[in-house]
From TrEMBL:
Keywords: 4Fe-4S, Iron, Iron-sulfur, Metal-binding, S-adenosyl-L-methionine. Residues 34-254 form the Radical SAM core domain. This is [FeFe] hydrogenase H-cluster radical SAM maturase HydE. The gene is hydE_1. Its cofactor is [4Fe-4S] cluster; [2Fe-2S] cluster. It comes from Pseudodesulfovibrio sediminis. PANTHER family: 3-METHYLORNITHINE SYNTHASE, BIOTIN SYNTHASE.
Length: 332
């Protein structure tokens, strides 16, 4: 095993990670200070043609009521995010087979006219022409998580899909000039510390502008519903390692951390994350964007959810920022 890989495995397995966490925090403070960038996520459709074994939106989940927001509702949700101080709007959905590429383009242009706001897309795998078109319409960023680079785990968790194809898409997005993000799910069934260490190093070689890592959270209506959840500690160590390896990348404290423990986001920030991505999807459909238990609470109005999160950030000693939050890695 190469020396670097051995070192990362040792850090994932060490009895105590406090030195790693302190180093990650110091690196984050050195680059971003106590500023936390806010991205409002509009989850505009839960239709999906794919069957990822971990995800509640998978095509095979017949229990999920499906929805698709109209253009006006999407722009309204984005407007709410901007008014609540988010410098970025993220448009996220399942991989719809009937996705209207031109309609998404019109929505991007409308959101860009709301103010000084960046638009991130998280719409899965599409062709070069579509990615290019959305970029021309004003999309700034694209998030496409690798989930894992390991061929066997990838094949098992994402039937019919390959890491090689996904990596090709990540590289394509970089060539098209997007601020590009990718990431991992930690603790997927079959993952070992060696596989995770290799994933962390592979991700760090891609010169990414954004990196998202969150624990696997089992969803009862999926084939992996009886599997164990990813460990919170392992996901925090993965976040800290990514911060040390990628000082200038934007790294979110993911909602999957909050799904495992009430102060999950604060823990993510304490180990090097510098971004939060609250859902700004309207209450009427938010509960149906049900990737995993604990993901979206539809009982609280969007405005209250955001205010509560901003309050949590302040209480933990951070400054919720309204800046677009371009990655210094992208500016360089
Ligand atoms: N469909 C697009 C795609 O797959 O890239 C974008 C939306 S997808 C719902 C967003 C992310 O949700 C995925 O990249 C995956 O990492 C995460 N996700 C889905 N199910 C999950 C689970 N059970 N536990 C943790 N993360 C999960
Ligand atoms: Fe669809 Fe994305 Fe869920 Fe896979 S992770 S089933 S592509 S929404």
């Amino acid at each position: 095993m190469p020396k670097r890989l051995r070192e990362v495995v040792a850090l994932l397995r060490a009895p105590d990670a406090s030195a790693l966490f302190a180093e990650a925090q110091e690196v984050r403070d050195g680059v971003f200070g106590r500023e936390v960038f806010q991205r409002g996520v509009v989850e505009f459709s839960n239709h999906c043609r794919k069957n990822c074994r971990y995800c509640g939106l998978r095509k095979g989940n017949a229990h999920l009521p499906r929805y698709s927001m109209d253009c006006q509702a999407i722009v309204q949700a984005a407007d709410c995010a901007v008014r609540m101080g988010m410098g970025t709007v993220v448009l996220q959905s399942g991989e719809e087979s009937a996705l209207d590429i031109r309609r998404v383009g019109r929505i991007i242009s409308k959101i860009k006219r709301l103010g000084d706001v960046a638009v991130t897309l998280c719409l899965g795998e599409h062709g070069e022409d579509d990615y290019r078109y959305w970029r021309d319409c004003g999309a700034d960023r694209y998030l496409l998580k690798m989930e894992t680079f390991h061929a066997g785990v990838h094949r098992h968790c994402r039937p019919g899909q390959t890491g090689r194809t996904r990596l090709g898409k990540v590289r394509l997005l970089q060539r098209l000039g997007y601020e590009t993000g990718s990431g991992l799910i930690t603790g997927l069934p079959g993952m070992t510390p060696e596989i995770l260490a290799n994933d962390l190093l592979a991700l760090s070689q891609l010169s990414l502008d954004m990196i998202a890592v969150g624990p696997f959270v089992p969803h009862p209506q999926t084939p992996l519903g009886d599997s164990a959840a990813g460990s919170l500690e392992e996901s925090l160590r993965a976040t800290a390692l990514l911060r040390v390896l990628n000082p200038k990348a934007n790294i979110p404290a993911t909602s999957a951390l909050d799904a495992l423990t009430p102060k999950g986001r604060e823990l993510g920030l304490s180990v090097g994350a510098n971004v939060v991505m609250p859902s700004v999807t309207p209450e009427s459909v938010r509960g149906e964007y049900f990737l995993y238990p604990g993901k979206n609470d539809s009982s609280v109005p969007v405005v209250n959810t955001i205010r509560r999160l901003q309050q949590r950030l302040r209480e933990a000693g951070y400054h919720p920022s309204s800046a677009r939050g371009v990655s210094p890695a992208y500016c360089a």
